[in-house]
Amino acid sequence: MTIRVLLVDDDALVRAGLRIILSSAEDLQVVGEADDGAHAVAAVRAHRPDVVLMDIRMAEMDGITATAAVRRLDPAPQVIVLTTFQADEQVMSALRAGAGGFLVKDTPPAEIIRAVRLVASGDAIISPSVTRTLLAHFGTSPASDRHRDAARRLATLTDREREVATAIGAGASNAEVAASLFLSEATVKAHVSRLFTKLDVTNRVHIAILVHDADQA
Length: 217
What we know:
Elements: E1 3-8, H1 12-23, E2 28-34, H2 37-47, E3 51-55, H3 63-71, E4 78-83, H4 91-96, E5 101-104, H5 109-120, H6 128-137, H7 144-154, H8 159-169, H9 174-181, H10 185-199, H11 204-214
Parallel strand pairs: 1-2, 1-3, 3-4, 4-5
Helix pairs in contact: 2-3, 7-11, 8-9, 8-10, 8-11, 9-10
GO molecular function: DNA binding
Protein name: Response regulator transcription factor
InterPro entries: NreC/VraR/RcsB-like_REC (IPR058245), Sig_transdc_resp-reg_receiver (IPR001789), Tscrpt_reg_LuxR_C (IPR000792), WalR-like (IPR039420)
């Protein structure tokens, strides 16, 4: 299956570099480009990509607003946000807006290709170590309404589901969750699928954000 990718960045050189990288993979196809978040929605409608690589910092419309807009479309593409810094202060907002993860712009080409494949399959593309770094960086008290909403949603889980969610919030992979809870990886995957449904989220990053928000006083 060919994965269709749309590039959204106000720097033509960045777009050109990403196009070269992605075009080197036989299963990836760059179907279009947009030079600003304001053009991203129209480009998604025109090209119907599976994955959008979205710059965060753009002049006319930032990547956070554009991410929220394209994720409201039906069907909605997966979004990977691009940032210059691993702990960009806007990354968490972009993830809350519906992005499936983020990449720093100096990510090696092979990892960019792997990330697109992972997010196209519905997985998150933030590694466990980066998840821990990101959530720790944004560990200041969030808005109280986010805390209440996260606590309410997590309260619907069984004890075992809450244990799995907490482990994901700490950045654990399926294998690490399985080892720590003495479960098989297949059982962990089943729990993760139920978490997606019960918490109304689309990937592991959003589970981690909910756990993070619920733990903040």
